Amino acid sequence: MQFPPLVIFGAAILSGFLTLLFGGNFYDFIISLIIGGLIKASSSFLQKLKINDFFINVVGGAIAALIALLSMQISAGLHEDKIIIGSIMQLVPGLTITNAVRDTIAGDLMAGMTRAAEAFLTAIAIAIGTGTVFKIWFSTFGGISI
Q1: Which helix (H) or strand (E) holds 5?
Q2: φ and ψ at 145, to 5 degrees?
Q3: Residue 49 and which of 15, 41, 104, 146 are 20 to 30 A apart at CA?
Q4: Mean pLDDT in residue range 100-109
Q5: Could you tell me which residues come within 8 angstroms of residue 56 by beta carbon, excluding any fewer than 6 positions away?
Q6: pLDDT band at 145, cuts 50/70/90?
Q7: What number is the average pLDDT over the span 38-48?
Q8: Please, which residues have CB within 8 angstroms of residue 41's CB and are 6 or more apart in sequence?
């Protein structure tokens, strides 16, 4: 699957406005624009290399956390939590969760459980990427200096 520049731009806009929706300010919006575009571009590149979706989501979470923490370090962003949440929302498996609930309600329990497990593993992948960057960052630098 290949992502044209317009899709990368759309992902950047999505991340920026979701950051505003979650309470970020204009500076957080700009940082999320950059992160959103980088996440979509990197996922496009990794899909060309036939990397599995679990690892792509780990990398996406790591990119969001690393750039958000770097922006806090250079005082470009003000709310690292809002930046990260707005940026990783494009990775969250909303359609998979919806289909899991729909299949379960329709009585197809095996398909519902399978889709729910897939959504759960995707959420774990995002958390692994983000959490690993946070652990390394705080172990190395001891926190965020503002």
Answers
A1: helix 5-21
A2: -100, 130
A3: 15
A4: 94
A5: 42, 43, 46, 47
A6: low
A7: 94
A8: 3, 8
Least confident of 67-71, 105-109, 141-145: 141-145
Amino acid letter, residue 138? F
Sequence spans of domains, the chain: 5-141
- pLDDT tens column, 47-93: 999 999 999 999 999 999 999 999 988 888 788 999 999 999 999 99
Q: Is the pLDDT of residue 122 over 60?
A: yes
What are the C-alpha distances in Å from 141 to residues 76, 81, 135? 18, 18, 10
Provide long-range contacts, Cβ within 8 A and 24+ apart, for 66-71.
66/133, 66/137, 67/31, 67/34, 67/35, 67/38, 68/31, 68/35, 69/133, 69/134, 69/137, 69/144, 71/31
Report the alpha-carbon distance of residue 125 to residue 131 in Å, rounded: 10
Token pair 């496009």 is found at 44
pTM equals 0.88
Q: How many residues does the chain have?
A: 146
